[in-house]
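Give me structure tokens for this 130-residue protein.
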Amino acid sequence: LPPPTRTQLENTLAAPSPALDPLGTDLAGPRCAHVRLLHGGQRSLSMAIAATAMSVLGGLVLGSAASALRLMDSLIDVLLALPPLLLALVVMSLVERSLAGVALAVGVANLGSYARLVRDLVQQGWANAL
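Here you go.
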């Protein structure tokens, strides 16, 4: 696939080609909309996977610690009491503005629910073991 920002000025007035450009082209070049869609989808999917991985791994650590320590349980309650969008905005104000910062903000915003789930599962396992 060609780069999504590659322009083809020599083909600006060429007839549309459904075989080469199944979703068409834009007026700036023309650039293939299919390639641009795949490129944007790749970034969005990688950001979603990174944010989910951060939430799950952080929730696993925090939830496991909270099953033994009451202080961590209070931290989970604070995370769940704050609206996720507000928490993400606070994190974004503390880190640099980048794609990794956005993934971190979304990961921290969803951390509380995973931590509570892990804490409950660990405590349920301890209750069944006794």
